[in-house]
Write a structure and sequence with these properties.
- It comes from Coprococcus aceti.
- This is DUF5702 domain-containing protein.
- Pfam families: DUF5702 (PF18960).
- Keywords: Membrane, Transmembrane, Transmembrane helix.
- InterPro entries: DUF5702.
- The protein is α+β, with helices and mostly antiparallel strands.
- The protein folds into two domains: 51 residues; 311 residues, no CATH class.
- The protein contains 15 helices and six strands.
- The strands form two sheets. Strands 1, 2, 5 and 6 form a four-stranded antiparallel beta sheet that branches. Strands 3-4 form a two-stranded antiparallel sheet.
- Helix 10 packs across helix 15, helix 11 packs across helix 13 and helix 12 packs across helix 13.
- The chain starts with a helix and ends with a strand.
């Protein structure tokens, strides 16, 4: 009997041990399954928030981002969305006894952070599909050729300003510089703007917009009367101050700007600014000043090219020399200074005609030849009556091409000003829209609890917080990004 009692006790101990072991295994499996389910739910919640990207921003500008304030509701709206998803997923479980304890938005990273790093990345990825390498090569070649023309022209002026002349001249007439000055009385923009086009001077308040505080590129042509050779030389050299560092890296941003924003010659949509790309370049608060800034910058590119051609044409150089010889008879005027100021004046007149064509949606020859040179230095007063044709040769350049070059030169502020335009355009229908709230990356801290069923002594399982309140707690940091 005594042995039977020992056996009973032994078997009872074995049975209880097996039962405890089984319950422990079940509880550990339950913990593992609960942790996995909570992790999957947390990932799903983050993806649910990710799916709430601003659809208009994506459809119109191909940028993926979530409004951290969700249309002015505050960051709590995103947290509530994640919590609603978690509760629906976890608390409808079959006997899992899981609850959402906390959901907190721990970190947001915006499109404009780190010098618009993610905005640049998304734009680059999008434009790589559409941009052709040939277009990139053409722009780079134009920049290189333009720089060489500027250097050659500037060098010629410097070397020739002390020239003297012993030949007599029979030229008589009006100083071409006076004729050009008379035409430009109302300003350069009035001369080059196509007939019938009115450029608005309505100003928009851009204080506090993304580009606020960014440095401006102030290099642009200033109208001169071609009576001061040193001043002309300084103007001629302005275009040589730019850096070409990183041109290829930003070419996709240039293509994006031209594809998605209005220009003076290509209005894609009815938006506050008619000249959006011009705003990206000049950064002024109205169309008139932005177009003025672009026109003045194009002068810096076209004038050296036209001057370089004049220097290579012996017949035209002879015409200028004849006029300069007469003007040099005036006390205080040297032949060399008169000659190169007249050349600059003539190149400027041709440049004005070029820009009129460009703004009319036509193309001009990049480096002029005699066949396509249209102005006559003795008839600059008839500048407005000249008929010019749309050039269609392989070396044709358009207004769009020059906008591309100017965007490259202003690459430092390009992305911020694009963000300005996006914000201004969306604010026409949503006053709460701000680009600084557009987030490409969100990080949530999630805590989920689960009731204990068996083996309450299990506390050291991986991923379980040690709070002795009868609950298992699972904590996760979930990041989602575009």
């Amino acid at each position: 009997m005594r042995n039977q009692g020992h056996v009973t006790v032994f078997l009872s101990i074995i049975l209880i041990s097996m039962l405890l072991l089984g319950l422990s295994v079940l509880e550990m499996a339950r913990i593992r399954m609960g942790s996995a389910k909570a992790a999957m739910a947390a990932e799903g919640a983050a993806c649910d928030v990710k799916a709430a990207y601003d659809k208009e921003l994506f459809e119109e500008y191909h940028l993926l981002a979530v409004d951290s304030t969700f249309g002015g509701h505050g960051e709590g709206k995103l947290e509530q969305m994640a919590q609603d998803y978690l509760e629906y997923t976890l608390e409808n479980g079959q006997g899992d006894n899981m609850s959402v304890e906390d959901v907190a938005l721990a970190e947001c990273r915006g499109l404009l952070e780190n010098d618009c790093e993610n905005m640049k990345l998304q734009i680059t990825d999008h434009m790589k599909v559409y941009m052709e390498e040939k277009g990139i090569e053409d722009i780079l070649e134009m920049i290189t050729s333009g720089d060489k023309a500027m250097e050659d022209a500037s060098g010629a002026v410097e070397n020739g300003k002390n020239e003297s002349n012993q030949d007599e001249s029979s030229w008589s007439g009006t100083d071409p510089r006076k004729a050009l000055k008379s035409i430009l009385t109302g300003g350069l923009l009035n001369v080059v703007t196509p007939s019938g086009r009115v450029v608005s001077d309505q100003a928009y308040d851009l204080d506090g917009f993304p580009s606020d505080g960014q440095a401006e590129d102030t290099r642009q042509w200033e109208d001169i009367e071609f009576d001061d050779l040193d001043k002309f030389q300084r103007q001629l050299m302005l275009d040589g101050e730019r850096s070409q560092t990183g041109i290829v890296d930003d070419i996709y941003g240039v293509g994006y700007a031209l594809a998605n924003f209005n220009t003076f010659t290509d209005r894609k949509q009815d938006r506050p600014f008619e000249c959006e790309v011009e705003y990206i370049i000049a950064g002024k608060d109205n169309d008139h000043d932005n177009l003025q800034g672009v026109v003045n910058r194009i002068v810096l590119h076209r004038l050296p090219l036209n001057l370089a051609y004049l220097l290579s044409d012996s017949a035209k150089m002879a015409e200028v020399s004849s006029i300069a010889a007469v003007l040099a008879l005036v006390p205080g005027v040297t032949y060399g200074a008169a000659k190169y100021l007249l050349l600059g004046c003539w190149a400027y007149a041709e440049t004005i005609v070029d820009i009129r064509l460009l703004l009319d949606g036509k193309s001009v020859q990049f480096m002029k030849t005699d066949e396509y040179w249209v102005t006559d230095i003795n008839n600059l007063d008839k500048l407005m009556n000249l008929d010019s044709v749309d050039y269609e040769g392989v070396d044709a350049v358009s207004y769009r091409d020059y906008l591309a070059i100017l965007l490259i030169e202003n690459k430092g502020g390009m992305y911020y000003r694009m963000a300005d335009l996006i914000q201004l355009n969306f604010r026409q229908t949503d006053e709460s829209f701000e680009m600084k709230n557009m987030m490409y990356s969100l990080t949530f801290d999630v805590e989920v609890s689960q009731d204990r069923k068996f083996a309450s002594f299990i506390e050291d399982h991986e991923g379980v917080s040690k709070i002795d309140d009868g609950l298992y707690r699972y904590s996760f940091r979930q990041c989602v990004s575009y």
